[in-house]
Structures are given as C-alpha cells and as structure tokens.
Write a structure and sequence with these properties.
By secondary structure, the chain is α+β, with helices and mostly antiparallel strands. It is globular, with a radius of gyration of 13 Å. The protein has a 4-stranded mixed beta sheet, sandwiched between helices. The chain is 40% helix and 19% strand. The N and C termini lie far apart (29 Å). The protein has one domain (3-52, 84-113).
Length: 114
C-alpha cells in the first residue's frame, strides 16, 4: 500500500485506495505533477481524492456508487464547497478513466490550468 494511503488519510474508513485512485495518482506522478492524494482542506470535514498544486481539487467518481442518490447529493455539496472556496474543481468518472486513460484526462483537463 502506498505511503499516502497508509498514513491514516482515510480515517480508518477504507483499507486501500481504489483502482481508479491508483491510476490517477500514478499518472500524476508519471507526468511529474505535484499532488496530494486524499486531501482534506482546512476548515472542511470531507476528503477530496486529489489536490493538484496550487489550486485544483479532483474527485474520482466510481460509476456505480457515485450514481446513487445519497452519494450524488454529497458529491454536489463537495463540488459547491470547493468552487465557493475558489478551487478549480474537476470530476473524473471511472468509465472515462478506464476508456480514455488517466494520463489523457490529466493532459486535457489539468495541464491547461498549470
């Protein structure tokens, strides 16, 4: 298990990262983009999947769980909070990560902001 997940960042909720979290984190590493996995902004109780320096928050949405109504409400609240705080907020969906690839999504949606 990678150090960033082994240091308690999940607050004991999950034991390991999902495969799409690993794919995106590895792609960011490969492209040399500074980031922090499982990032909790100061003053906020929820964790975002990735923080790309200096100001990008990324949520990685699994196709099944994040399509459920209660999860969609929570995800919308997180997105609203991030935008209101001045972050650039991005969502990557599992189907896109699998079909297009994490590196392509990063090239297309993150690199233009850096």
């Amino acid at each position: 298990m990678k150090k960033r997940w082994a240091d308690g960042c999940y607050d004991g909720v999950f034991l390991s990262p999902t495969s799409i979290e690993v794919d995106v984190s590895d792609a960011l590493d490969l492209l040399g983009i500074p980031h922090k996995s499982q990032f909790r902004p100061k003053g906020y109780t929820r964790i975002f999947d990735e923080f790309v320096y200096p100001n990008i928050l990324i949520e990685l949405q699994g196709d099944y769980w994040h399509s459920l109504p209660h999860t969609r409400r929570r995800d919308a609240e997180k997105a609203t909070w991030a935008i209101q705080q001045g972050y650039c907020f991005l969502e990557f969906w599992e189907c896109d990560i699998r079909n297009i690839g994490a590196e392509h999504l990063i090239d297309r949606y993150i690199i233009p902001f850096l």
